[in-house]
């Protein structure tokens, strides 16, 4: 930059001299040769300024994207070769969370589906919502999982590059599902059954099971909302046996 200032000042001086010689020639107060010399000198100084300006532009490096300067890799005045990385700029306004989904679950997800992202911030769990933007067509033969990417806005910069987060995905939503304690289901020879209270008697119902979630299981068929399920002592009753309801939970 000092060389640029010097070259710029030289152009200003030569411009003043050129203007002065132009006026003197018009007044026949100096030979035209002096104006020609001033013209040549002004052209030389302008060319020098353009050269210095071009060299200065080559020393100015602009980041290809907006972001935060995470690390400066060179020192001021250091010579570097073309293509050498000089800084690390990180843009975390929009981030991608990469997850590996087991092959048994990947069929439940589609691009555009929402996903919950949970991260610990100062000891408190904060939640964000992202969108599935990529599902690989290839499964990992060793892990039996498929790569999936979730994109989300990170305006408050809660997430950092390389950070580990908790991702919660909803495989499917079951409306009006009937869930009962898994222990209430009695394995039969060819089916599964539960006991319900019909008036004051025990009634055995064959049921079809659905998904199991923890200690609960979905009943796809065999029970209706409002049925009074026996969950304690049910293995010691028989169909038609009179039962005494000790306590009842809805």
Automatic annotation (TrEMBL):
<dbReference type="InterPro" id="IPR030190">
    <property type="entry name" value="MacA_alpha-hairpin_sf"/>
</dbReference>
<dbReference type="InterPro" id="IPR058792">
    <property type="entry name" value="Beta-barrel_RND_2"/>
</dbReference>
<protein>
    <recommendedName>
        <fullName>RND efflux pump membrane fusion protein barrel-sandwich domain-containing protein</fullName>
    </recommendedName>
</protein>
<dbReference type="Pfam" id="PF25954">
    <property type="entry name" value="Beta-barrel_RND_2"/>
</dbReference>
<dbReference type="Pfam" id="PF25989">
    <property type="entry name" value="YknX_C"/>
</dbReference>
<dbReference type="GO" id="GO:1990195">
    <property type="term" value="C:macrolide transmembrane transporter complex"/>
</dbReference>
<dbReference type="GO" id="GO:1990961">
    <property type="term" value="P:xenobiotic detoxification by transmembrane export across the plasma membrane"/>
</dbReference>
<feature type="domain" description="CusB-like beta-barrel">
    <location>
        <begin position="96"/>
        <end position="171"/>
    </location>
</feature>
<dbReference type="InterPro" id="IPR006143">
    <property type="entry name" value="RND_pump_MFP"/>
</dbReference>
<dbReference type="InterPro" id="IPR058637">
    <property type="entry name" value="YknX-like_C"/>
</dbReference>
<keyword id="KW-0175">Coiled coil</keyword>
<dbReference type="GO" id="GO:1990281">
    <property type="term" value="C:efflux pump complex"/>
</dbReference>
<feature type="domain" description="YknX-like C-terminal permuted SH3-like">
    <location>
        <begin position="178"/>
        <end position="245"/>
    </location>
</feature>
<dbReference type="GO" id="GO:0030313">
    <property type="term" value="C:cell envelope"/>
</dbReference>
<dbReference type="GO" id="GO:0015562">
    <property type="term" value="F:efflux transmembrane transporter activity"/>
</dbReference>
<dbReference type="GO" id="GO:0019898">
    <property type="term" value="C:extrinsic component of membrane"/>
</dbReference>
